[in-house]
Amino acid sequence: MLIFQGKALVYLLLSHVLQLFHDVKWSQKKSWGAANEDCVSRGAILVSIHSQAEEEFLSIYSKGTSKWIGLKHNPTEGGYSWSDGTALSHTNWGPGEPNNHEGREECVEMVSTTNGTFSWWNDLNCDAHQDWICTLLCLVCNSCVLCYKVTGTC
Ligand SMILES: *[C@@H]1O[C@H](CO)[C@@H](O)[C@H](O)[C@H]1NC(C)=O
To answer: Which UniProt keywords apply (predicted)?
Structure first.
């Protein structure tokens, strides 16, 4: 368990609770579903992104790669939803995206340039094998953020 005191520790928190699987060998890359299962097996979940600051941090952290994030098409909601259940408050679609090419692109990847200073989202076939980013499940309890390996309560 990791414990962080205070409020303005977003970056510290991000750097400690993220588990990046980027630049992995092709044979180790995963479909969206397998990446999601891998995160869950670690007491984590595919990362969700809620601000430009988080976007930029993640992009630098995983520069030069295309990786799954926790966003997936959700027909019942008529749009997209995060696998961790948080609200879709920030988006960063690339030009012309999401295009649901041939009606087969239900999952979303984040693409970052070589130096990571620019990134965008692209919808992609869920069976494509990509890198992925997990984030540990955390709870905000009073002024602390507690990150458990398993879901816990304050
Ligand atoms: C990052 O790369 C872009 C080109 O993709 C370039 O315009 C920019 O100056 C670079 N930034 C840094 C900090 O190297």
So the answer is: Disulfide bond, Signal
